[in-house]
Design a protein that fits this description.
The protein is mostly helical and about 170 residues long. The chain is about 60% helix and about 5% strand. It is elongated. It starts with a helix and ends with a helix.
Length: about 170
């Protein structure tokens, strides 16, 4: 996450021809937002200690609800991180960073392209015209990979907005 956003900020430094002081300020504030978001999300993950879809789907017959059925053959798109699910760290971090950059530029309309190592091979370069679209896709990617539930991404997104407001 922070590596990807670092690449994006380097690109924005060049395409927007930022002065050194403005570039340093952007990197400092965005990284502060990321660190604050990381602290907040790990506090929440440790507090709620919620299971991931991988575990919930495979163990659904143990949840006390007779209407759910386990699917022990279901696998996620990628290797599931061995840590708590709720809330989504990617969602909070991406929102915090994107909203901080938005505040710096005074607009959400910031265009950039970035190559993702986790995107589908048919579409490794992602182009965006808005910071909010990139941040939203970042959170959504965690649902598509099978790592998070929608409510975890929604809460992470909300937390990210709050962190950015404080920054």
């Amino acid at each position: 996450n922070e590596i990807q956003w670092g690449r994006i900020m380097r690109q924005l430094t060049e395409t927007r021809q930022l002065r050194l002081l403005d570039a340093v300020r952007m990197f400092a504030l965005a990284n502060m937002a990321n660190i604050d978001a990381t602290v907040a999300v790990w506090f929440a993950k440790n507090y709620y200690d919620f299971w991931r879809p991988f575990h919930a789907i495979g163990l659904a017959d143990t949840d006390g609800n007779p209407l759910t059925e386990a699917d022990r053959n279901w696998v996620s798109e990628h290797i599931v991180p061995p840590l708590q699910e709720y809330p989504s760290a990617h969602a909070i971090q991406c929102q915090a960073i994107a909203q901080t950059i938005r505040a710096i530029f005074g607009t959400d309309h910031v265009s950039f392209a970035t190559q993702s190592t986790t995107a589908l091979p048919s579409n490794p370069v992602r182009s965006f015209n808005r910071l909010s679209t990139a941040a939203r896709e970042c959170g959504e990617s965690r649902i598509m990979a099978g790592f998070h539930y929608r409510f975890s991404v929604n809460v992470g997104t909300s937390m990210g907005h709050k962190v950015a407001e404080r920054i």
